[in-house]
């Protein structure tokens, strides 16, 4: 049977508008963060915040580092609150949300707490290294961050995600059997499949491969499990298994390692410039220079965004191809169409939007690839 060749239908004005607003919210959030960092550095308010932190911490350096970081996170979140609320309302307006205002407020509080705790620990570690090893701090900090990145990838599905969503091992026996068969064909072991209670907050559907080592698992949104046929779910599972077979999570960590290496090198260079030439700070270990370090990483990820997204799209195409080869192509196509409708995804975004912002190929391209594959491998 050959799939009927289709050209993706044009996206409705509603879909285009929804995605355009979301994109602008993303850009706005980025611009606001950037402005905050620049203002702190240019006006010298970062020094004022540091002095405040010292006073609050009774002149203890490490306590002051934590306090300064928490204040920075608090200011950042307070500034972004308006846009966060707008995104919440946007999802509601498009009937994509199952969340009440109280749930959203609670999520904001949790996000702030998790962000503040994580950021404090990281910044504490960073300035401990800068203080102890002012010469080679940037290489040691890079190594430290690698360890943290691996640890976080490992802990995220068991520690971080459950703060925001409920998860439980998949109960469906039929799906489990299908999955084991898929894994056997792939010569890989599926360590676990979890039902992700996404419907508590959203009407969208999603699935992902998460974790590392013993915590590696596929998570499937309950919204997907309830509305998709077993064949369609198998196609989604095959895609996620493709990520596992092609080792996309470890590869992602390697890429991240390369990026952060450049980041820390550049941070060291700029910090020395700021301290030695501009006399903005007395020493490298003056934590009022934190916005400068963050700024360098923000700029770096901005410059590299198209390249990193291209890398991600390459991985997604690989995972899709794996799904074509190991599950039913018609189910893959129908699951993609369902996902696009359910999540209000643009099937055919403009070329430059896809190139700059998209971590996945557009649905239109994924459908075209599936149909192309089906035609090339037609057995009739
Ligand atoms: Zn994927």
In percent terms, what proportion of residues is strand?
Answer: under 5%
* Bound chemical compounds: zinc ion
Counted beta strands: 4
Q: Share of helix among residues?
A: over 70%
Strand numbers in spatial order across the main sheet: 1-2-4-3
Structural class: mainly alpha
For the record, give the distance between the C-alpha atoms at the N and C termini, rounded to a whole number. Answer: 7 Å
Oligomer description = single chain
- Uncertain runs are 1-5
**Which series of helices and strands comes N to C?**
HHHHHEHEEEHHHHHHH
Q: What's the tally of helices?
A: 13
Shape estimate: globular
Rg estimate, integer Å: 23 Å
Average pLDDT over all residues? 93
State the major sheet.
Answer: 4 strands, mixed
Describe the structure.
72% of the residues lie in helices and 4% in strands. It has 13 helices and four strands. A four-stranded mixed β-sheet has the order 1-2-4-3, sandwiched between helices. α1 packs antiparallel against α10 (290-326). The protein is globular, with a radius of gyration of 23 Å. Bound molecules: zinc ion. Residues 239, 243, 316, 319 line the site of zinc ion.
List keywords for this structure.
mainly alpha, 72% helix, binds zinc ion, four-stranded mixed β-sheet
List the helices and strands and how they pair.
Layout lengths: L12 H31 L1 H12 L4 H33 L7 H32 L4 H28 L2 E3 L3 H14 L6 E4 L10 E4 L6 E5 H6 L2 H16 L2 H30 L12 H37 L2 H15 L7 H7 L5 H14 L4
Parallel strand pairs: 2-4
Antiparallel strand pairs: 1-2, 3-4
Helix pairs in contact: 1-3, 1-10, 2-3, 3-4, 4-5, 5-9, 6-8, 8-10, 8-11, 9-10, 10-13, 11-13
The protein binds zinc ion.
């Amino acid at each position: 049977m050959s799939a009927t060749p289709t050209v993706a239908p044009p996206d409705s004005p509603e879909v285009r508008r929804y995605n355009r607003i979301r994109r602008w919210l993303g850009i706005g959030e980025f611009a606001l963060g950037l402005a905050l960092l620049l203002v702190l550095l240019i006006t010298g308010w970062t020094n004022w915040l540091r002095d405040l932190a010292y006073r609050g911490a009774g002149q203890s350096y490490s306590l002051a580092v934590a306090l300064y970081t928490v204040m920075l996170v608090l200011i950042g979140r307070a500034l972004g609150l308006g846009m966060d609320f707008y995104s919440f309302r946007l999802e509601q307006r498009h009937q994509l949300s199952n969340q009440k205002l109280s749930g959203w407020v609670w999520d904001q509080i949790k996000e702030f707490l998790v962000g503040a705790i994580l950021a404090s620990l990281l910044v504490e570690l960073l300035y401990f290294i800068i203080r102890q090893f002012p010469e080679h701090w940037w290489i040691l900090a890079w190594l430290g961050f690698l360890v943290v990145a691996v640890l976080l990838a490992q802990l995220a599905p068991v520690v971080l995600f459950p703060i925001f969503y409920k998860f439980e091992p998949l109960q469906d026996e039929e799906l489990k059997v299908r999955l084991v068969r898929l894994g056997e064909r792939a010569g890989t072991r599926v360590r676990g499949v979890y039902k992700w209670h996404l419907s508590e907050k959203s009407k969208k559907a999603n699935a992902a491969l998460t974790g590392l080592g013993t915590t590696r698992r596929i998570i499937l949104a309950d919204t997907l499990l309830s509305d998709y046929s077993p064949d369609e779910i198998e196609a989604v599972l095959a895609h996620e298994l493709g990520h596992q077979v092609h080792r996309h999570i470890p590869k992602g960590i390697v890429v991240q390692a390369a990026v952060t290496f450049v980041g820390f090198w550049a941070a060291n260079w700029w910090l020395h410039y700021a301290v030695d030439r501009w006399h903005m700070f007395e020493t490298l270990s003056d934590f009022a220079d934190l916005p400068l370090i963050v700024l360098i990483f923000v700029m770096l990820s901005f410059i590299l965004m198209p390249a990193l997204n291209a890398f991600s799209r390459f991985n997604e195409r690989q995972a899709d191809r794996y799904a074509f080869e190991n599950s039913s192509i018609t189910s893959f196509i129908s699951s993609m169409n369902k996902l696009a409708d359910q999540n209000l995804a643009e099937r055919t975004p403009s070329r430059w939007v896809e190139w700059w912002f998209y971590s996945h190929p557009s649905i239109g391209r994924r459908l075209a690839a599936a149909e192309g594959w089906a035609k090339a491998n037609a057995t009739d």
